[in-house]
Amino acid sequence: MASGVGDGAERLGRLAGKMALVTGASQGIGAATAKVFAREGADLVLHWYDGEKEVDKVAEECVAMGATCRLVHSDFSTREGVEHLTSQIDRGGIRLDVLVNNAYFPGDLKFPGSYDGWQRTLDVNLTAVAHLCFWALENMVNGGSVINITSIQSIFSGEYSWAYGATKSAIEQFTKRLVFEGGPKGIRANTIRPGLVITDRNRSRWYEDEPERLEFISDIYPLRRVGEPVDIANVCAFLASDESSFISGASIAADGGLSVVNAALGGWYAHELRLTEEAGRQDGK
After folding, report:
1. HEC per residue, the chain
2. In this structure, how many other beta carbons lie within 10 angstroms of the beta carbon of residue 275?
3. What percent of the chain has pLDDT above 90?
4. pLDDT higher than threshold 80 for residue 234
5. Predicted confidence band at 276 (pLDDT cuts at 50, 70, 90)?
6. What mean pLDDT do residues 202-212 have?
7. Confidence band of 161 (pLDDT split at 50, 70, 90)
8. For residues 38 and 45, what is the distance between their CA atoms, to the nearest angstrom?
């Protein structure tokens, strides 16, 4: 477990004195969450699978803000990978106050995809998350906050969502059950459902060659923009803080209003389809 230590000065902020584990912390939402948590006074354990240079940079920024920062590399597609992370924390005598399950695998994009791709998506997005939550119930001896990052695709299917969407839906339901197990121990559990969040990786992969595509998607959102990682990180900070001490079992849509748009478009589509069918019957088709 690599580590960095802040300057030891007294730290202020909503998360001062809290220890947080953030998974998938090398980029995107995980990296932004780590930096917001450090700014708010938390100490950190950062999990990463790929992006060693990126996570080192994230850790450097967190340490510069005074945080103690430990790095753990592991592969969540295997039981051994999950247990490697938890054992490193346990052996270090670390007691968590916050767990942010952010790491994910996107899965095969086209239907039906491969058996191995489907299985890896379930292993990383669902099984690893579940077992980290089970472990956190024992590790968080002074209560705490579990934050599971899901997706708008947990409630609205997309062309490429298949295994990914199925795992995110499962985590929504799993978290509701976790509320009952964690509640008596003072452990809260909530989910955050992001809409499209632009990171350095997906911007270069999907949108740099087609900037008009991102502009088109942004126009669908009521706020006329897609999300940035810090938008989700700020919600994580709220759920990690004592300001949300009476919130458990919530699923927060941090999607710029897209879930409302999806509902509206779905209603419009059903209405148009019904009119078309009625017109067809009237025409004797």
Report:
1. CEEECCCCCCCCCCCCCCEEEECCCCCHHHHHHHHHHHHCCCEEEEEECCCHHHHHHHHHHHHHCCCCEEEEECCCCCHHHHHHHHHHHHHCCCCCCEEEECCCCCCCCCCCCCHHHHHHHHHHHHHHHHHHHHHHHHHCCCCEEEEEECCHHHCCCCCCCHHHHHHHHHHHHHHHHHHHHHHHHCEEEEEEEECCECCHHHHHHHHCCCHHHHHHHHHHCCCCCCECHHHHHHHHHHHHCHHHCCCCCCEEEECCCHHHHHHHHHHHHHHHHHHHHHHHHHCCC
2. 10
3. 66
4. yes
5. very low
6. 74
7. low
8. 11
Structurally, at CATH architecture level, domain 2-282 sits in 3-Layer(aba) Sandwich (3.40)
Compute how many other C-beta atoms are within 10 angstroms of the C-beta atom of residue 208: 9
Length of the chain: 285
pLDDT at 282 over 90: no
The mean per-residue pLDDT over the stretch 34-56 comes to: 97
In this predicted structure, the answer to whether residue 108 has a pLDDT above a threshold of 90 is: no
Question: What residues are labeled active site?
Answer: 164
